[in-house]
Specification:
CATH class of the largest domain: Alpha Beta
CATH superfamily of the largest domain: HUPs
Radius of gyration: 32 Å
CATH topology of the largest domain: Rossmann fold
Helix content: 25-40%
Oligomer: single chain
Distance between the termini: 35 Å
Number of strands: 21
CATH architecture of the largest domain: 3-Layer(aba) Sandwich
Shape: elongated
Strand content: 15-25%
Mean pLDDT: 90
Number of helices: 15
Number of domains: 3
Structural class: alpha+beta
């Protein structure tokens, strides 16, 4: 057992013997076994005990852990808090509050001591119970694979891992190890209380399931181990898809290319949404219903829609983009040309004017009508336009929309419509409309960049004088690994 344990410490947990590891010790057989096995394997450790103050004898347990650590010449740190009050204040379950405060203490200590990791004594029994808890919640493969030997819990620390070297050891083995090595674990009476979900699974559900399969625990453990390799394959696929579909990602917002996201299978869409949510809110428990709501929006025929997900996270669809964001996120405007303010901008031939976010509008006169018509006929960029200059002067205005604006777009045979109706028909995102630049000659809108020119100034067979306008997006300035999987 010790040879396999040392291989797990070095290989699976990635620990080295020249750096300290903080070991969470409760005084029970699992954590005492972990402490002693790591000590005997030659790993420098610090013992850490957290008093949840849920039992009258918890202070006695703290002293017992401290004495054991002292006898073995190990450093020991003890802290505690009123878990019940913390749970009441934050409307959390006792189990969740206890875990939050315990891990907060362990990782704070690890940072102060510059430890390489936090080690905890989860066993194969804990793994089976965890898998069952995830199954009852309707978890996918990420939950059914159970806990890993080494993982990062971003909500506690983005760099220091938590390691679980005993995931292939059964609880009975830790009890035996303690007895053989002169360790005296204490008995935690709260482990018998069926008011906690994990205890109900342990004492009520699992014995019932073992009547169907006496080796149920072993079967469940083997399933979780098998799913780990399947999960690794899923994550490789997810990483490729993330790089292909995500346009930008930060602490408040993940933006997908809508067309590329739509080309993914629904299963991959769910995984991408889940990863985005967990990137924005580490530790959020994402249910199937939440993911189903998101994928329905993604695959909807509605060009603009939104939905609440969970824990303040939302999903928006805007034309070519799908955003998943926090409630306080500021959605980007730099994907569209936008006026820098309410004041109009003047531009003369030839010339250039700078818009918000680095966008630029340029204009020049073309003297070769045949070439202009050829270019216009083959053009599929809505941010370029060639206009008949016969009735246009050399000075133009860029402005925002005004109340009551009308426009005669190409394709309506000279019929005018409200600009607001044109925006709706063109599916221009609502929040982009107020500052969308409109190219005007006097009071007339002659081009809505990104959409259509005015019918009156289209190129005609008789056109001899032509003005070319283009709106150019600033060059992307992405770090090489900006879209890599977090």
């Amino acid at each position: 057992m010790s040879e396999n344990f040392e291989a797990i410490l070095a290989g699976e947990c990635g620990l080295v013997k020249d750096r300290i590891t903080v070991v969470g010790v409760s005084g029970g057989p699992d954590s005492l076994c972990l402490m002693e096995m790591m000590r005997r394997a030659g790993y420098p450790i610090l013992v850490a005990y957290f008093d949840h103050q849920l039992r009258p004898e918890s202070s006695t347990d703290a002293r017992m852990v401290e004495k054991t650590a002292s006898r073995l010449m190990l450093g020991c740190f003890i802290d505690g808090a009123d878990v019940r009050s913390f749970a009441d204040e934050r409307k959390m379950s006792i189990e969740e509050a206890a875990r939050t405060l315990r891990y907060r203490f362990l990782f704070d200590l690890a940072r102060r001591q510059k430890a390489q990791a936090v080690a905890v004594g989860h066993t194969a029994d804990d793994q089976v119970e965890t898998v069952l808890m995830h199954f009852l919640r309707g978890s996918g493969i990420s939950g059914l694979k159970g806990m890993s030997y080494r993982s990062i819990i971003k909500s506690f620390d983005p760099d220091i891992p938590v390691v679980r070297p005993m995931l292939d050891m059964w609880r009975e083995e830790t009890v035996l190890y303690c007895a053989v090595n002169g360790l005296r674990p204490h008995y935690d009476s709260s482990n018998d209380s069926v008011s906690f979900q994990r205890n109900r699974i342990r004492h009520l559900l699992m014995p019932t399931l073992e009547t169907y399969n006496p080796k149920f625990r072993e079967a469940t453990l083997h399933m979780s181990q098998s799913l780990k390799s399947d999960y690794a394959f899923v994550m490789e696929t997810l990483e490729r898809a993330w790089g292909e579909t995500v346009l930008s990602a930060n602490d408040e917002l993940v933006t997908f290319d809508a067309a590329r996201l739509l080309s993914c299978s629904v299963g991959l869409q769910r995984n991408l949404v889940k990863h985005a949510m967990q990137n924005l809110n580490p530790g959020v428990d994402v249910s199937f219903q939440t993911l189903e709501r998101a994928t329905q929006l993604i695959n909807s025929s509605q060009p603009s829609s939104r939905a609440d997900l969970k824990a303040g996270l939302r999903i928006f669809r805007e034309e070519n983009y799908i955003h998943i964001c926090t409630s306080n996120a500021v959605l980007p405007f730099d994907r569209w040309p936008q006026m820098p303010g309410e004041a109009p901008l003047s531009i003369s031939l030839p010339g250039q004017v700078t818009l918000a976010g680095g966008w630029k509008l340029t204009c020049e006169r073309w003297r070769l009508p045949a070439l202009a018509k050829e270019q216009a006929d083959g053009n599929d960029d809505p941010f370029q336009v060639w206009l008949d200059a016969e009735e246009l002067k050399d000075t133009f205005t860029l402005r925002v929309r005004h109340q009551g604006d009308h426009f005669t777009p190409l394709g309506l045979d000279g019929h005018s419509q409200k600009l607001s109706d044109f925006f709706v028909n063109e599916k221009l995102p609502q929040r982009a409309r107020d500052r969308w630049p409109l190219l005007c000659a006097g009071d007339e809108i002659i081009w809505v960049p990104g959409h259509r020119p005015a019918h009156r100034h289209r190129l005609k067979a008789t056109t001899r004088d032509i003005i070319y306008f283009s709106v150019v997006h600033p060059p992307e300035k992405l770090a090489p690994d900006e879209n890599s999987l977090p």
